[in-house]
Amino acid sequence: MPERENSGPLARALDRLFQLPLAEFTAARNELAKTAGAGAAEVRALAKPSVPAWAVNQLYWRERRLYDGLVRASDRLRAAHTRAIGGQKVDLAALELQHQAAVKKAAEAIRAILARSGDPATPATMAAAIDTLQALPGGGTPGHLSRPLAPLGFGALGALMKGAATPKMLAEVVTFAPPKPKADEREAAERLARVEAGKRLKQVDAELARVQKALAAQRTAVQRAERAHAALDDQLQKASAALAAQRADAARLDRDRRGLEEERARLKDAL
User: Fold this and answer.
1) Greater pLDDT, 263 or 2
2) What is the model's pLDDT at position 91?
3) Which residues neighbour 135 within 8 Å (Cβ) at sequence distance 6 or greater?
4) Spatial separation of the C-alpha atoms in residues 67 and 64, rounded to whole Å
């Protein structure tokens, strides 16, 4: 697995950038470029990830155990192919099965990640994501993919077996892609994708119906509360008018009382 060059503030900010929802990437990248100093040009040049690349990035950030398990399976398979090319007897079939199982688990996790994010796990998206999973751990800094990867095919294997590859090329071999799915396998995968989409559609429809029902009930409750508020407001206005009238009557009676008391005092003095 490629090592990160540093763990400074900019590197950590880039890690956070690639963990964001895909819709927020461009705005966040542009904001980061404003504060990146000498790294501003590098940040501005970052391409927004495609959906398959973003999904594989999220596998690294959110499901590290699955990601690391896939990378270990790929490393073992790569090393076995290298030994086989060198003439050693290696049980490639067992290692390929382990690698395929790790790819399958990672693909299932990616399908769930896409469902939670609201992005459709279309056959094309999943095919590109699975190609990328098969190509790991290639592709630069883990979790920072911008485009899907393509696994090495059998042409590269043939070149290696003929001795056309340099030691550097041999060291860079990740794994050898399995044969392209047969037509019936691809159709089965597409049917499975449609079934999964149908299940999710039913879930969304049910959730939408629940929310719409709750919204209608809440709107009715708001209308009742508004009517009650209006009635209370009318009562308050009437009570305020009655209070004002009572206060006016009390003030008038108080004036009458003071006048009568003054007159009584005068009459007493006159007797």
Assistant:
1) 263
2) 86
3) 149, 150, 151, 152, 174, 175
4) 5
Backbone angles phi, psi at 130, to 5 degrees: -70, -40
Q: Which residues contact 73 (CB under 8 A, 6 or more apart)?
A: 95, 98, 99, 101, 102
Q: How far apart are CA 52 and CA 32, in angstroms?
A: 23
- Interval 43-48 mean pLDDT: 95
At 181-200, the pLDDT tens digits run 556 656 776 777 677 778 76
pTM of the predicted model as reported, rounded to 2 decimal places: 0.58
CA 159 to chain centre: 41
Report the largest interatomic distance among the alpha carbons of the chain, rounded to a whole angstrom: 145
Distances, alpha carbon 194 to alpha carbons 111, 121, 158, 181, 188, in Å: 13, 10, 37, 18, 10
CB 143 within 8 A of CB 14: no
Distance of alpha carbon 98 from the chain centroid: 29
Please give the span between the terminal C-alpha atoms of the chain, in angstroms, as a whole number: 120
Question: Rounded to an integer, what distance in angstroms lies between the CA atom of residue 131 and that of residue 148?
Answer: 7
DSSP assignment string, 152-174 = B-HHHHHHHHTT-S-HHHHHT--
